[in-house]
Specification:
There is one protein chain. By secondary structure, the protein is α+β, with helices and mostly antiparallel strands. It has 2 domains: 42-195 and 255-348, Bira Bifunctional Protein, Domain 2 (BirA Bifunctional Protein, domain 2); 360-449, Rossmann fold (3-Layer(aba) Sandwich). It contains 16 helices and 16 strands. It has an 8-stranded mixed beta sheet, with helices on both faces. A 5-stranded mixed beta sheet has the order 13-12-14-15-16, with helices on both faces. The chain has a 3-stranded antiparallel beta sheet with strand order 2-4-3. The chain binds one RNA strand through helix 1, helix 4, strand 6, strand 11 and helix 12.
RNA sequence: GUGAGCGUAGUGUAAUGGUUAGCACAAGAACCUGUGGAGUUCUUAGCGGGGGUUCGAAUCCCCUCGCUCACCCCA
């Protein structure tokens, strides 16, 4: 073929292709997931179901009541609650102005909302403490990374209206038990931040200690030094660790009442044999925390806490928050669990859960049979039999294949002949043995074979 | 927000700058209204997007979007 024609041809083809592509795109414009968002697909739901079932059961057993607050709140709630200076509020909030000109934000965490609800609905008039649990999506506009999405789910507890250390211990015990029940060994890191008075006192001590060594700190710690000196303590940078190696610990500077509180919490934990690690470097990022704070890490023999270990959950006491939001002085304490992080840990540990499998598959041949099957399916389902079908399929072979894939114990087969005789074939999928049963007795027969009680007793 | 790596059907992958982008699995259909773990045949579906270099780009360059990872921060 002469070159020219060929070139012409291929060019033409290319143009046609591009045109087709372009018009397809213009027409279809396939929508895409927003950055940092994830679909939770059917195959993953078993993890979510398990975790939530366990969490909700535990929460109810412990006397917690569910609360759901809106996903959007006034931006000022989080500014006042979580803290102006915190990164969460400063740069990680999904904020926008709504059609009414209101400054609103997608909630980055739950505690501020729960505290708001506590005040707004006068929950201080209820018997104290008020014990609440919540579950739902939260939003932070940060760069996605492993264990960090822009929309993520938390389950959490809040106990409002009591200052006793036993509350903190209860919450930590709950956390420990919860992780254990879903199959994760954890390690609780615990510390006390003291009240405002002791914290301010400690800050001074810390600054004095750091001052001469300031230049040895990493660059981000240099700025932390000014903004939030406590944060220098949990920097992962090697050189900062060296500087803070012998740093005075906050627990040594607690006032008597805070010290007592902390000791009590630890005593309670000893009593219920919850293992914990005192971590004087633990500092939490939200402004409202005071006294007891803790984070829950996966317990791993090999990898030390060093780097990259993400907390599976965390919490602490927040005695000032309710007042800061305009309520009366209300001591409170809470915890939040990061569901995605838990799931990825479960997957990593290859902790798998069996999905609930259907027990009976119903196969049909012909329109009459299909009609009948619709009825039988419903009859059996009402009796609590886990059913499956592919009523939309034709051909027995395909249907049996389907039944096989689903892993059912028995398949019911209904064709023209069975319709005429008013019978059903029951096929044992393990050995292929079939039996013809009277259509009227089918419910009874199936239940018998599945070892279900007959109800008639 | 900063930095690094990566983008080929639903998934996993292949293609010294060179014809029509190939393979496997999955999915759907037919063989086949009468018996599953199988086969055969067929079908659907892809170079993230945009520009540039070139006679010619999945391949090279730029931009952008997205993913992954780290930093920051946090669940």
């Amino acid at each position: 073929m002469p070159k020219k024609t060929k070139d012409k041809k291929s060019k033409l083809k290319k143009i046609i292709r591009q045109k087709a592509k372009k018009s397809k795109r213009e027409v279809l414009k396939i929508p895409q997931l927003l950055r940092g968002m994830k679909d939770i697909l059917p195959e993953d739901q078993k993890y979510w179901d398990l975790i939530l079932d366990k969490a909700i059961k535990l929460a109810k057993d412990n006397g917690f009541k569910k609360i759901e607050t809106p996903i959007i709140e006034e931006t000022s709630l989080f500014k006042r609650g979580v803290g102006m200076e915190t990164d969460i509020v400063e740069k990680e909030m999904f904020s926008f102005i709504d059609q009414g000109g209101e400054k609103v934000s997608l909630r980055p965490e739950a505690t501020a909302s729960v505290a708001r609800a506590y005040i707004e609905h006068g929950m201080f008039n209820l018997p104290q403490p008020v014990k609440l649990y919540y579950y739902g999506p939260f939003f932070r506009y940060n760069r996605p990374q492993s264990g960090r999405q822009r929309q993520f789910y938390q389950f959490g507890l809040e106990v409002l209206g009591n200052a006793l250390p036993v509350i903190d211990a209860q919450i930590i015990l709950f956390s420990y038990v919860f992780y254990k029940e879903i199959g994760l060994e954890t390690e609780i890191n615990i510390n006390s931040l003291g009240c405002n008075t002791c914290r301010e006192r400690y800050k001074k001590v810390l600054l004095n200690y750091l001052k001469p060594k300031k230049n040895f700190l990493c660059s981000s710690c240099q700025s932390r030094y000014l903004k939030n000196p406590l944060r220098v303590l949990d920097c992962k940078e090697e050189k900062c660790h060296e500087v803070t190696f012998k740093v005075p610990q906050i627990v040594d500077y607690l006032c008597d009442s805070c010290k007592n509180h902390f000791i009590k919490v630890l005593e309670y934990l000893d009593e219920v044999e919850v293992p914990y690690v005192l971590n004087s470097r633990l500092v939490r990022g939200l402004d409202y925390y005071c006294r007891t704070i803790f984070e829950i890490f996966p317990k791993s023999a090999e990898e030390k806490e060093s780097s990259g270990q993400l907390a599976l959950g965390g919490g602490g006491r927040y005695d000032y928050l309710v007042k800061m939001l305009g309520g009366r002085e209300t001591a409170a304490s809470g915890v939040a669990f990061g569901i995605e992080r838990i799931i990825s840990k479960l997957k990593e540990k290859e902790i798998v859960f069996e999905e609930i499998k259907p027990q009976i598959f119903i196969a049909q041949l012909g329109e009459e049979a299909r009609k009948k099957c619709l009825k039988i399916f419903e009859d059996l389902r009402k009796e609590g039999v886990l059913m499956s079908e592919s009523l939309s399929k034709e051909g027995l072979r395909g249907q049996l294949e389907m039944a096989d894939k689903l892993g059912v114990k028995f398949t019911l087969i209904l064709g023209q002949e069975e319709i005429l005789n008013e019978t059903v074939i029951i096929r044992d999928m393990e050995n292929g043995v079939q039996e013809v049963v009277d259509l009227k007795k089918i419910v009874k027969e199936v239940k018998k074979r599945l070892g279900m009680s007959n109800g008639a007793a």
